[in-house]
Design goal:
The protein is an alpha/beta fold. The protein has 2 domains: 196 residues, Rossmann fold; 149 residues, 3-Layer(aba) Sandwich (Rossmann fold), CATH 3.40.50.2300. Strands 6, 7, 8, 9, 10, 11, 12 and 13 form an 8-stranded mixed β-sheet that branches. The chain has a 5-stranded parallel β-sheet with strand order 2-1-3-4-5, with helices on both faces. Helix 9 crosses helix 10. The longest helix has 24 residues. The termini are far apart.
Length: 408
């Protein structure tokens, strides 16, 4: 009798599904234990001076891998086996990690920070070992080799913000004056490179460029010098902790409010509001390459489900979104490589030629711009939005803005 009820239930579910999609839930696809796992490497700065970014990014990576394996059946029945390492925002650790991935026959790797990928790329390029970096800089992708930027780079941020500032914020006559406060690695160098290349063309005057360390606790001296130059706008390309220090110092010196402050996407996250204080960073502009939490896009519900289940402390932090999306892209690369190579015996070279280079309009659940490989442009998504801190929330104030490649 029980067996008859099960048969009837199965038949009934089939009829309902045929007439009303979703009325009966089928079992999720399963990992095939007979298929070897796909091994990918991942690093994030889980400790060290950039841990306020690395911790949510590491969580986003692994939560998405859990979702892919448990609910999507991995990739073609293969489990994704991710070796997630802490690079500590330390170049030596990053290089050791990528050499391990190469020596232990991983298929490709991902990392969070442009600074860490700058350290890793020499080993990766020499071995033709493909890597994807969440936050990119032009030195990683120009000239294009084996490193791919998940999102537009820090120079693209500067250009997008500057265009917005000139069009929507600047009300004076002549050229506005801009000072750049930049982290002393590729995060800052990317913005400087774009300013050097495009400031005159866009119609803005760069009056000062000041570097700082990720460990800075005061930029009063630099800002005092800048204050004497009477800038109209300060642009910061840094991580959240130094960005918060700079804005606090600008407020202490009576520069802000007054001057306009803009931030690249490394700095304009929930961590900035938490570290700087909502009242201090109110009104600060920024550029970011993903949606914000709670927006109505297809991938939001599942991501929210997992962050609430595994890491509720990171809900609201957009860095988590970057790495959740990064893992979705990794799975799509593997899917394409299997489809196009016709074999499950993949190599890093097949991953690159038949996976990464076949990416075309992958929507990433709407979490950021569509992902497409374009010959000569190793940035995979190519759009950003301008944001502003309003009443303690980071709010998008533009739609998606195209970020054309700046040729250096």
């Amino acid at each position: 009798m029980k067996r008859m009820k099960l048969i009837l239930s199965t038949l009934l579910c089939g009829i309902i599904v045929a007439t009303s999609v979703g009325a009966c839930k089928s079992a999720p696809p399963a990992i095939d234990p007979g298929k070897a796992p796909f091994k990918i490497g991942m690093t994030n700065p889980l400790t060290g001076v950039a841990a306020e970014k690395g911790k949510p990014m590491g969580a986003g990576n692994l939560d998405a891998i859990e979702y892919i394996n448990n609910e999507l059946g991995g990739v073609d029945g293969h489990k994704i086996e991710a070796l997630a390492l802490d690079d500590g925002y330390d170049a030596t650790k990053a290089v050791t990690s990528v050499k391990r991935f190469i020596n232990e026959n991983y298929l490709f790797f991902t990392t969070a920070a442009s600074a860490m990928m700058t350290a890793m790329m020499e080993s990766a390029n020499r071995a033709s070992f493909p890597g994807i970096v969440g936050f990119s800089a032009a030195n990683l992708t120009q000239p294009p080799q084996h490193i791919y930027g998940q999102t537009p780079d820090y120079g693209d941020d500067w250009a997008a913000f500057t265009k917005y500032y000139l069009d929507k914020v600047w009300k004076g006559s002549g050229k506005p004056k801009m000072a750049l406060l930049i982290l002393n690695n590729s995060t800052g160098a990317g913005a400087k490179k774009a300013a050097d290349a495009k400031a005159a063309e866009l119609g803005i005057e760069i009056v000062a460029i000041k570097e700082h360390a990720a460990t800075t606790t005061s930029e009063i001296a630099a800002l005092t010098e800048i204050k004497g130059l009477k800038p109209d706008v300060l642009y910061i390309s840094s991580t959240p902790a130094p960005t918060a220090v700079i804005i606090k110092n600008a407020k202490e010196l009576g520069m802000y409010p007054g001057v306009t402050i803009g931030s690249g996407h490394a700095g304009i996250t929930k961590a900035l509001v938490d570290l700087g204080g909502a009242d201090v960073v109110e009104g600060v502009y920024g550029v970011y390459p993903t949606v914000q939490w709670g927006e109505d896009v297809p991938g939001m519900a599942k991501m929210t489900e997992y962050v609430r289940k595994n890491h509720p402390e990171y809900e609201g932090n957009a860095d988590y979104i970057v790495s959740w999306a990064q893992s979705l892209i990794a799975a799509e690369i593997l899917r394409l490589a299997v489809k196009n190579a016709g074999t499950d015996k993949l190599t890093p070279q097949l991953i690159e030629e038949q996976g990464i280079k076949k990416l075309k309009n992958f929507t990433v659940g709407g979490l950021h711009g569509p992902v497409t490989y374009t010959a000569g442009d190793n940035r995979l998504s190519k759009s950003v939005r301008v944001l502003q801190v309003q009443k303690g929330k980071i709010v998008p104030i533009t739609g998606w803005v195209d970020a054309p490649q700046i040729k250096y």
